[in-house]
Amino acid sequence: MTPPVVDVLPAIPALILAVTGLAVLLAQAFTPRGQAAPGAPFSLAGLLAALVAVYLLAARGGGDLGGTYVVDAFSLYFHALIIGVGLVVVLLSPSYLRATGIDRGEYYTLVLFSLVGMLGLVSCRELVSLFVSLEVMSVALYALAGLHRARPESQEAALKYFITGAFSSGFLLYGIALLYGASGSTSLVAVGAALRTPGPATAALATMGTGLLLVGFGFKVASVPFHMWAPDVYEGAPTTITALMSAGVKAAAFGALLRVFGQALPALAASWQPAVAALAVVTMVVGNLGALAQSNLKRMLAYSSVAHAGYLLAAVVAAPGIGVEAVLFYLVAYAAVNLGGFGALAALARQGREPLSLDDVAGLASRRPALAAALAVYLISLTGVPVSAGFVGKFFLFRAAVNAGWTSLAVIGVLMSVVSAYYYLRVVVAMYMREPLGEDAWAPVPPSAGLALGLSAAVVLALGVHPEPVLTWARLAARSLL
Amino acid sequence: MELFEAILFYVFAGLSLLSAVVMVAQRNPLYSAFALLVTICSLSAIFGLLGSPFIAALQIVVYAGAIMVLFLFVLMLLRVGREEPEPGRQRVLKTVAIGLGALLLAQLGAVIAGIRPQVARGFDASTRSMARVLFSPQYVYVFEATSILIVGALVGAVVLARKEP
Q: Where are the domains of chain A?
């Protein structure tokens, strides 16, 4: 029997990242004890190579690996986004790791492995592969969340993330099992075809499976009522990893959600749309009200991340149609903003301390004018003020909801955005209108982190002024899902 | 022959259910672990009866072998030989949990009563056909991703568990 021929080219970006991760691991093994391997340059090289590979794949027109790992316009869009997130996180990391004393080669290995999982998550057209990708991403992040081993908050974050993550994986797996039971296949396309003409028993099984899948994804995107872990984990994890979670994990989880619900479950839209709409409403309300009460900046951004999951879900309701491109566009805007926000906090870290309260950033504009300006741009974009990516993104999200006949979702979203202005702008006010308190305790912004922050601020402004190119690409990606 | 198989099936099915109940009801974690072992072995026997020796062997090797050893290791390390005292103030939670459980049971009953069971299609569950599926191009990605998963888990465990350099 001759072995079947498999075209591995479509998986090249993921392979490059995985091999780079192993190379960093080996480099660490050959580095003298107590020193850190040059993980950041290795990872940067690998990420840039992967980005080139994505570009070449796009020029080649995609492809697939054994029919399960599919590289279409949708995957390519997310590949570029996720690798971009990886680049920014790696640029932010060296100075932060040194400042907090957790500089280790394995950090980069785990970051790269989690990126491999994210790439798989948005590319898999088969439920078992999807689940394994999710685990690849999550297992690396569980360890990364606990990297500050001396800090109890970090240990708490790792444990909470691990337990809730494992729990949510159980839900997801149970949902997958029920869908398999209902349709006799784990391929998204075959499930979609089988559910178009369901018998009564199949319909019941498939509906239960859909509900369980929604719970599983709800945990991963941190939507209320499955958000309890998010504030503690975001606060306790190393800040660069928080940036990776809020930008990368959210993007990958929404990618998988859109693919599964768009390709396998459009026939059940009538039963999952109201559920998603309800999740969107409570997530927007609880996320924003929760953020109002926070004095810790990382916790505030964590609740804001919950609230933004709500805005995104409001457009997922309109998913089979224009909702998809709105979500895709907003994920880019949101990733840039969150990388910037958490990155700015990480860039100031010095001797194990980082700015966490409003007092810590008071008068920052007079001491670090460029960083304060960048942070202001991110916060304004999170609020959704015009000429920022956040405004354009939210506009598309809410327009999608309205066009799909869910006007109430858009109304709640806009109202909640107004509420959010209070807690976002409070930080801007502290930076610009207050006098600095005490000595300047923060680090000068390191060049690589400065580059990363400048890059994300530029993306935020560029998307706000000229969203057309990314929007066209998002439209193309959304169409490939149908 | 078929009668013999049916008898065996019901014996093992009953045994697995019984030991599963014992596992949950036992308050001594060590006894629970052994009850779980009985459940796993009876499940393995059922897989064998269904004509899938590969899954039956996996069940023993992975669950009864590796995972049970892990459980027992943890139990011994933590010295949980004593009975866990029943928490007194969680009576309300317990009532709620029983109520929800009854609801789930009723729902399941309704769904199962509504389903007209079909005779399962016969299929080849032999080791050879398992291998054909596992090593088909369809699962190349999963196969490779699993190796990354295992390396990632190992690296993560070492990072979290080793002494500070």
A: 9-481
